[in-house]
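A.,

Following up on our hallway conversation. Structure tokens first:
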């Protein structure tokens, strides 16, 4: 423990060390581990930071409040707090004390903690009159109190004063979970639609959990029974209704997932430690906690930081909760990912040192894909290492739970207008990244106008209805003419559950495919389809826009770096910096307008904070640091591809690389491109292209050849794909009675190397009329004709068997003993085609090298040998 020897004046014998016995958020085992880990080299920087921070804190305290012969009384310390409102860094000092519990540290810790009681009495709160920040401050106080009280440092009068203050704190927090509150001065008639009855999930979770914790700590308070009852009723309900079934956070912000989950977790830990209730032994609660931790784990990107969902930033928040939760729930993958985040992106926080359990099992996750289909996050990766490739598409609802039905533009709350946003990493290097929150949080003109808006995300939006150019330098004139709400573009609506549809999801090894359709504006639907190549990080991105009126469609991309070069003879655009580059190759539409907005251009609209010249007012690189952006991913360029039309079909290829482009380009007809590399060739073409090298009967198709041999291919919403004269894929409706109301167009991906395929067919078009009178097997007889589609696809040899799985979240194994043990097969089982897993009957054509199977509607994942 020599690392903290500088904390004390003079050496202390072990006999003078004070025993520490916390019982709220920590245990004696946590204290023991904190001390044992001092010998670990990887934690030496964190322990050194703890030593330096604690020494600075204690030295500063003693300089202002010198040690006295007799301990200061409770009243004296409260008076200091009320007069000086000293810094609340007692959690750091408490951690240092638990590590090296000397009388000197203990004395300073007691004085700082009790003085904080006086500071709270200045306004009846520490951080603010709100549920989230005051809840966090109270949790931090309780964490330090747990250590201080467990070491016997507090006098009887100290304990009484703290109990009385915690009672007051619980009253304030309980008030913040009442309905109909609003503290915003703008909540007047003019702003009713925007601000009245705003609901913040994090307020409810934090306030309820901390008030409940105070009730457990002080069960004899007259209000404690009600506070605890409320917490025990509300917190499980919030966990099951305001988080997605797949763990997604309901408020649409990863930054606020962190305090909300932390409050839930620490309430459960305190409940167990105090002997009230063990939530971790409840399978339903424990599994819900696992699901949201898995969601957080999958949002971890190769550089150790997370996808910046909503308000937040590209940061490592959540690492310690993954470790702590992984230990409590016996999930080695959570522990492994939590540690990898700390290794790659973030030093261990001082108090977090309690939770670094290096004896806990840790194992890298096996899955290289994740589809959180309820909250709407599709993720592919090449591995879990720091130099792997990563692709994410956000296609879900704006909010989950109580706020799902909100339809107004995203202003209140912490979500962003980022529907169908794409994020890419190449060899661990961020290429397309949502940098998160920029601007002052309370200032909608700056904060809400840009970083929450669609234009700041890698998706498709709408320009302004007047056709003004965003670089016209006349923003002030437009505001005078059209009002203070004027912007050069329109934000997407909130996305509700009925506004979105997952069209396809599959991971076949070499490629992943994902397609989703959302109603992003009142009269606009947007379907985005991504085909992503795992080994090289390349993405083919298609965006189909539909509206009954002509719309000013704008395709937004925010690549890291600046424009490096423009292609000669084609429209390729190269963005990047000295670390990595990205080629953007537009294929369709042919008549689009290209606009590039460079960071620092004085004509950039004033609310484009991330792109304004450096040093201007309001700029910040994070939610907490009021400085000019310095992070690499904050230095972006804005690319806008524009087309005015009722329907638009954007088809673009995104090619990331280090320094040298891995492919040479050549045109392949009017709407196609051939990319030739050293070992592989990629063909991309839109439907109806005039070059038959890749024939596409559908929206678009992709084919890849490795060393001259076909290795994988994909088709979006089509009936056929051909490589020259070779048929790759063919979809035909077998049940002809459905021809007038069912389109057998398939979205598909096939990998010959991995012997995997993913097929997504439209859902059953059943409506009231079809339910009453569906197509019949025989006219006049009752039996309905099932929907059947004949799918032929090219493979490299005749399969021995084919296994199909009906799923949009899992990929099949050839042998699945767990499934076999749960399923009793029966030759005449009429429902066998509706099993989630089944062997398929198929035919083989040696001449065409095509397998033909019969499928019905929706998703089907295939594997063969």
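Then the amino acids I'd put at each of the 865 positions:
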């Amino acid at each position: 423990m020599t690392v903290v020897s500088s904390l004390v004046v003079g050496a202390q014998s072990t006999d003078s060390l004070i025993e520490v016995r916390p019982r709220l958020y920590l245990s004696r085992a946590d204290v023991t581990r904190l001390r044992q880990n001092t010998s670990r080299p990887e934690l030496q920087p964190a322990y050194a930071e703890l030593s330096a921070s604690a020494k600075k804190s204690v030295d500063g305290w003693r300089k202002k409040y010198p040690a006295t012969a007799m301990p200061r009384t409770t009243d004296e310390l409260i008076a200091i707090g009320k007069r000086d409102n000293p810094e609340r860094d007692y959690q750091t000092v408490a951690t240092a004390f638990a590590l090296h519990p000397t009388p000197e540290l203990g004395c300073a810790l007691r004085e700082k903690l009790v003085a904080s009681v006086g500071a709270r009495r200045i306004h009846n709160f520490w951080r603010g009159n709100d549920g989230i920040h005051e809840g966090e401050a109270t949790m931090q106080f309780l964490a330090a109190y747990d250590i201080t009280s467990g070491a016997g440092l507090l006098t009887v009068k100290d304990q009484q004063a703290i109990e009385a203050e915690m009672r007051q704190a619980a009253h304030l927090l309980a008030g913040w979970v009442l309905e109909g509150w609003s503290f915003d001065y703008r909540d007047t008639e003019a702003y009713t639609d925007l601000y009245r009855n705003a609901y913040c999930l994090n307020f409810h979770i934090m306030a309820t959990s901390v008030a409940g914790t105070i009730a457990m700590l002080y069960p004899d308070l007259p209000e404690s029974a009600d506070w605890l009852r409320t917490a025990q009723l509300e917190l499980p309900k919030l966990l099951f209704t305001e988080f997605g079934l797949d763990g997604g956070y309901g408020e649409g912000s990863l930054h606020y997932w962190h305090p909300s989950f932390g409050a839930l977790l620490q309430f459960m830990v305190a409940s167990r430690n105090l002997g009230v209730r063990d939530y971790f032994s409840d399978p339903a609660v424990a599994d819900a906690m696992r699901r949201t931790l898995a969601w957080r784990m999958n949002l971890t990107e190769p550089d150790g930081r997370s996808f910046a969902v909503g308000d937040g930033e590209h940061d490592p928040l959540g690492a310690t909760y993954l470790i702590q939760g992984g230990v409590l729930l016996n999930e080695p993958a959570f522990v492994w990912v939590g540690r990898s985040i700390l290794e790659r992106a973030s030093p261990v926080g001082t108090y977090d040192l309690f939770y670094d359990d290096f004896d806990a099992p840790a194992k890298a996750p096996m899955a290289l894909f994740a589809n959180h289909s309820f909250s709407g996050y599709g993720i592919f990766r090449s591995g879990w290492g720091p130099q792997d490739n990563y692709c994410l598409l956000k296609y879900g609802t704006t909010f989950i739970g109580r706020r799902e039905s909100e339809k107004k533009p995203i202003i209140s709350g912490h979500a962003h207008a980022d529907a169908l946003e794409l994020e890419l990493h190449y060899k661990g290097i961020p290429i397309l990244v949502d940098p998160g929150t920029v601007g002052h949080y309370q200032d909608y003109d700056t904060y809400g106008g840009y970083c929450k808006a669609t234009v700041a995300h890698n998706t498709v939006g709408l320009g302004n209805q007047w056709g003004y150019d965003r670089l016209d330098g006349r923003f002030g004139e437009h505001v005078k003419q059209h009002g203070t709400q004027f912007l050069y573009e329109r934000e997407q609506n909130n996305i509700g559950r009925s506004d979105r549809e997952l069209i396809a999801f599959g991971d076949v090894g070499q490629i992943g495919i994902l397609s989703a359709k959302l109603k992003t504006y009142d009269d606009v639907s947007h379907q985005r389809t991504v085909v992503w190549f795992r080994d090289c990080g390349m993405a083919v991105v298609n965006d189909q826009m539909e509206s009954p009126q002509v719309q000013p469609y704008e395709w937004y991309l925010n690549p890291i770096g600046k424009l490096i070069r423009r292609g000669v003879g084609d429209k390729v655009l190269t963005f990047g910096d000295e670390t990595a580059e990205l080629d953007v190759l537009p294929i369709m539409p042919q008549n689009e307008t290209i606009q590039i907005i460079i960071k620092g251009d004085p004509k950039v609209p004033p609310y484009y904070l991330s792109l304004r010249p450096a040093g201007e007012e309001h700029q910040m690189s994070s939610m907490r640091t009021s400085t000019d952006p310095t992070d690499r991913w904050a230095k972006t360029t804005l690319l806008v591809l524009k087309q005015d039309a009722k329907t638009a079909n954007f088809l673009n290829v995104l090619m990331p690389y280090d320094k040298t482009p891995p492919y040479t380009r050549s045109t392949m007809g009017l709407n196609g491109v051939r990319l030739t590399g050293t070992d592989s060739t990629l063909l991309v073409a839109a439907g109806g292209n005039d070059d038959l090298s890749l024939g596409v009967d559908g929206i678009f198709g992709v084919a890849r050849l490795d060393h001259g041999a076909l290795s994988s291919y994909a088709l979006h919403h089509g009936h056929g794909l051909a490589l020259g004269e070779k048929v790759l894929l063919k979809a035909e409706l077998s049940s002809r009675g459905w021809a007038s109301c069912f389109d057998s167009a398939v979205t598909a991906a096939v990998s010959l190397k991995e012997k995997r395929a993913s097929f997504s067919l439209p859902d059953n078009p059943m409506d009231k009329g079809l339910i009453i009178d569906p197509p019949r097997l025989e006219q006049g007889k009752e039996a309905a004709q099932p929907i059947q589609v004949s799918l032929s696809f090219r493979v490299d040899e005749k399969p021995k068997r084919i296994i199909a799985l009906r799923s949009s979240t899992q990929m099949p194994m050839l042998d699945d003993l767990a499934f076999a043990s749960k399923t009793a097969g029966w030759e005449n089982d009429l429902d066998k085609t509706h099993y989630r897993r089944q062997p398929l009957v198929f035919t083989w054509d040696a001449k065409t090298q095509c397998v033909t199977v019969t499928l019905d509607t929706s998703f089907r994942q295939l594997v063969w040998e």
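The two ends are 58 Å apart (CA to CA). Curious whether your intuition agrees with the design.

B.
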